[in-house]
Amino acid sequence: MLLQVEDLFVNYGVIQAVKGVSFNVNEGEIVSLIGANGAGKSTILHTISGIMRPKSGRILYNGKEIQKEKSQKIVSGGISQVPEGRHIFAGLSVLENLQMGAFLRKDKSQLKKDYDNVFERFPVLQERKNQDAATLSGGEQQMLAMGRALMAAPKLLLLDEPSMGLAPIFINEIFDIIESIKKQGTTVLLIEQNAAKALSIADRGYVLSVGKIVLSGTGQELLNNAEVKKAYLGG
Amino acid sequence: MQILQQLINGLSLGSIYALLALGYTMVYGIIKLINFAHGDVYMLGAFWGYYMINTFHVGFWTALILSMIFCAIIGVIVEFLAYRPLRDSPRIVVLITAIGVSFLLENGMSYLFSSSPRDFPQAMVMHRYHLGSLSISNVQVLILVTSIVLMILLQLIIKRTRMGKAMRAVSVDPEAAQLIGINVDHTISFTFALGSALAGAAGVMIGLYYNSIDPLMGMTPGIKAFVAAVLGGIGLIPGAALGGFVIGLVETAVQAMGFSAFRDAAVYGILIVILIIRPAGILGKTTREKV
């Protein structure tokens, strides 16, 4: 197992945002966590990335506990995140944003190949590489945020609401890209409110409700589940 | 000719304010703190230069570089001891701490080294060049040129180097920076080191120019440099440089018109006007909150 979350409790201020969540991600999978706004999805990702600390519980990455590690250690270990709302660096060029994604990389020889890879996957980023990242459209910014996270050469990519606020045409493209990232060997943990899309590309999924996992199964099982249909897929 | 003369005087004074203002603005950009102890770092730089020249008989340029290194270290230590523990505290708490650090440095230095002014060693012989009625000293030229070179270097560091880009990334979005593995604490230390090094250079140069240093010498230039940073647009590096030169020129102009006593008042007057007319500063954009 690449990632194992065990009985995780996280407080967000005074609110108990995550109340005893356990799940796991195997190497080579796309795993989707779905759930309504406020279910605790982002909190879980932030805790994995090391910018929030759990109250109790463990997070194991390759069998090693990481819940007390610093975020830069977690990134250099191979977990990078595309944050919700993209959070690209305005004022820095597209290329500089990607360079920041590779901030901790030491393997200079592989680096060049990874830039080529990102530019091949997102040709628009190459076209605009010297442009201020703030001038990109929402969909392009999402691609930049993904490219930036990929420049860290992650083994596990965490995606927080990648389709949020995007035009439908971009949404399909983003999900295609997620599948192709998986095919190239990067494991993906995906958080989405767009449950139908997220489950259709997922190997497995978990349904989160007010800080707890209420259902789990393969992507297909969850898509066909009556409760999921009723609560998250609009009947 | 008179105007040209004042222009030169104003620019060399302004470049000192600009160097100081850069430190204010960089620190503000990255942790949203007005570091009121910044002027005192400049004072420490002048004192360090003084001791290096007097005790170790180093040349002016060596003293300048040693002061920059010394101040960089001081800046990092101040941030580490005083501001870092308050990283998650309300901004007003950190601001008051900065004022406290300023008092500590001023009074600590007065206690240790006496508060009376001392002569800064003339590590470089002052020459005056006369071109018609124009009178320029080599020290003025040195201040102006050194400041500009330092500003260009700073710009290169910020635009081209890995740490410089990290600084900009942390300034716009610390959380995203952390998520891709940038060590935010190191980046903040680096920012303090850069800003403080510029203050150190300014301290040594002003020591040479005015020939006198004392533990409270950082107060007024510190506040004026802060005004310069706000004038240019706080958080904006070109703004700080511009603001510094404007303040220097205004001050010199007021003095040249025979209102020496109102020199400081004019600078603070500008602050008031700016805050009313263009609160974001000359180069600042009124920011819209994106939702």
List keywords for this structure.
heterodimer; A: 235 residues; Rossmann fold; 6-stranded mixed beta sheet; 39% helix; globular; B: 291 residues; mainly alpha; 4% strand
Oligomer: heterodimer
CATH class of chain B: Mainly Alpha
Order of helices and strands of chain A: EEEHEEHEHHHHEHEHEEHH
CATH class of chain A: Alpha Beta
**Distance separating the two termini of chain B:** 54 Å
Organism (chain A): Agrilactobacillus composti DSM 18527 = JCM 14202
Family (chain A): Belongs to the ABC transporter superfamily.
Protein name (chain A): Leucine isoleucine valine transporter ATP-binding subunit
GO molecular function (chain A): ATP binding; ATP hydrolysis activity; branched-chain amino acid transmembrane transporter activity
Polypeptide structure, described:
The complex is a heterodimer of chains A (235) and B (291). Chain A is an alpha/beta fold. Chain A has one domain (3-89, 153-232): Rossmann fold, CATH 3.40.50.300. Chain A contains 10 helices and 10 strands. In chain A, a hairpin with a 2-residue loop joins strand 1 and strand 2. The model of chain A has no long low-confidence stretch (mean pLDDT 94). Chain B is mainly α. Chain B has a single domain (2-277), classed as ABC transporter involved in vitamin B12 uptake, BtuC. Chain B has 11 helices and 4 strands, in the order ααααβββααααβααα. Chain B has a two-stranded antiparallel ribbon with strand order 1-4. The longest helix of chain B is centred in the N-terminal third of the chain and has 30 residues, at 2-31. The radius of gyration of chain B is 19 Å and the shape is globular. The relative contact order of chain B is 0.21. The mean pLDDT of chain B is 93. Chains A and B meet through helix 2 and helix 3 of A and helix 6 and helix 7 of B.
